[in-house]
Amino acid sequence: MSYKSIIYDLKTKEHSILSSKDVNFSIENSLSVLRGQSFFTSAVTIHNDQGTSLVLLDAHYERFQHSYRVLFEKTQYPITYDEFKMYIEQTIKLNSDQEDKVMQCLIFFTAGQARSIADTGGHYSSGFGGDLESMTVVMKAYSCKPDWCFDDGIHTLSKVYQRPFSVAKPTQYLGGVEGQHVLDALNTASILYHHCHDKGLDNALSHIMDFYETLTRYEQQSFRLLMKDIFADPLYIQRLSRSVLQHQYGFSENITKAIDWIMNIRVTKREFEDLYYSQFPDLKHEVIFKTDDEYILEGSTFSLMGINQDNECVFIPLRGNSSREDDLNTGYILQSTSIVLLQEVLKQLKTPYQISSIRYDDLFSLKALYSVSTTRFKYNKNSVQLVPIRSIDHQDLPYEHTKTYELLMKGVYQFIQGWPKAAYDLQR
């Protein structure tokens, strides 16, 4: 059975039902499509003996209100909580015939056209202004991360980046886009180096990362372009020459000499893909944002939870993660609904936790660090799991499976099984 979605017109108060695969956004939504003035949330439905529902709907609604205030600078949110709740529940009911009751729910708020001022001489528009136009509730299959993520953890790189409008959740993730370009290039080059030199993958990663750091920003971009071309077609290597590397990619003679080993590789696309995917668990997977003064912020699509030496969970505050307290452009992160869930469970367990900034060097004194988001929970029979982060910038992070983590995960499972009787009200 295909998944079904709802589009709710915030102005006419009418709604339409369609297949999730047919959901799209019109160019008429110019403020969202062209200007990026839209926001969303990702949630997961749970199923227990009380039915199928979306956990912490209040938290999602409150974050929507805040996103609206930040991105539109208006206080009167165009949909009430009761209306919001009704359409979420209706969308869940439309998908009640799905065999898997754990579903991913994406909720988008999109704006209409820019405001236009009319007079006798015509219309004037700056291309901005206007308001929200619709809410789209998309239901789709829940895609859990592979088992190795939860069992062995993931490997990360740090990146100096502050998300614009970081306390809101806009649909643009350009910092993550930039970070993925770096991940792809380093992973591709490391696999090629590993294959060419018969070196261990760990040594290959270390060599490529050290080399990449010696490049200027322009040279790094050129290196990423080269790796993207090779990833798309490994046979492209056979057409490379020193002249191509220098003139097409702009490499100096010294850099060309440093990477001329690439031209000796002979590998088919199938062989390269087999190498890449078989080694992927040991490559680099995600980017973690930090400030230029080494304060940890958040992942490109996830939040963070640490466990300190006192066996307490540690969460990064929403603001103040910078040595420049008067700077309103740095040190801010998104309010994570998954973090809200974890903190509420800890309160119910009467287990103390810390909300405090984490510097880069502090990561190495934690007992464990976890990535947290709706798609990074694994739901087991009697518990749930999070994805541990095992390294950053090719440096191993401590990882200890603590009783604190175990109790928290069992608490999350019990909370979900008791929902909505265990309802947490944000007192909107």
Features:
12 helices, 6-stranded antiparallel β-sheet, disordered C terminus, 34% helix, 10-stranded mixed β-sheet, 18 strands, D-amino Acid Aminotransferase, Chain A, domain 2, globular, D-amino Acid Aminotransferase, Chain A, domain 1, 428 residues, alpha+beta
Q: Give me the secondary-structure category.
A: alpha+beta
Which regions are unreliable across 5 or more consecutive residues at pLDDT < 50? 423-428
Continuous helix count:
12
Instruction: Report mean pLDDT, rounded to a whole number.
Output: 92
| Corresponding CATH architecture of the largest domain | Alpha-Beta Barrel
How far is the N terminus from the C terminus? 36 Å
Kindly provide the radius of gyration, computed on alpha-carbon positions and rounded to a whole number of angstroms: 24 Å
Assess the beta-strand content as a share of residues. Answer: 15-25%
Name the CATH superfamily classification of the largest domain: D-amino Acid Aminotransferase, subunit A, domain 2
Specify the biggest β-sheet: 10 strands, mixed
For the secondary structure, the number of strands is 18
Order of helix and strand elements from N to C terminus? EEHEEHHEEEEHEHHHHHHEEEEHEEEEEH
The outline comes out as: globular
Q: Given this structure, which CATH class of the largest domain is correct?
A: Alpha Beta
Number of domains: 3
Helical content class: 25-40%
CATH topology of the largest domain: D-amino Acid Aminotransferase, Chain A, domain 2
